[in-house]
Design goal:
The structure is a single chain. The chain is built from three helices and four strands. With 96 residues, the protein is an alpha+beta fold. The protein has one domain: Alpha-Beta Plaits (2-Layer Sandwich). Strands 2-3-1-4 form a four-stranded antiparallel β-sheet. Strand 2 and strand 3 form a beta hairpin. It is globular.
Length: 96
């Protein structure tokens, strides 16, 4: 005889629920490559929002999400020779 649990199981939100629309964090191969990357993606209104760290050169970039999807922007940035790494910016949460 088993007992039925009345406790509801919660499904964790998907990764896209935490993503901040129109923002990507990039690590560049060199700090002086930022202007080149911004110029190369000017069609998407790419702009530097914040310098996260000088070394390694990490930047928070913003783009027009009405012009290009988040996944497409991420792929394009990752394939750029001046970009070492890129990921979507995400909302922080309360840690337990």
């Amino acid at each position: 005889m088993g007992c039925k649990s009345t406790e509801k199981k919660t499904v964790p939100p998907s990764t896209s629920d935490y993503r901040i629309d129109g923002e990507i964090i990039v690590q560049l191969t060199a700090k002086d490559e930022l202007e080149k990357v911004l110029r190369d993606f000017s069609d998407y209104n790419l702009e530097s929002l914040k310098t996260i760290a000088p070394y390694p050169p990490l930047f928070l970039l913003g783009y027009d999400s009405n012009v290009i999807s988040a996944s497409e922007m991420l792929e394009k940035l990752k394939s750029h020779p001046s970009v070492k790494e890129a990921e979507h910016n995400k909302k922080g949460g309360v840690r337990e």
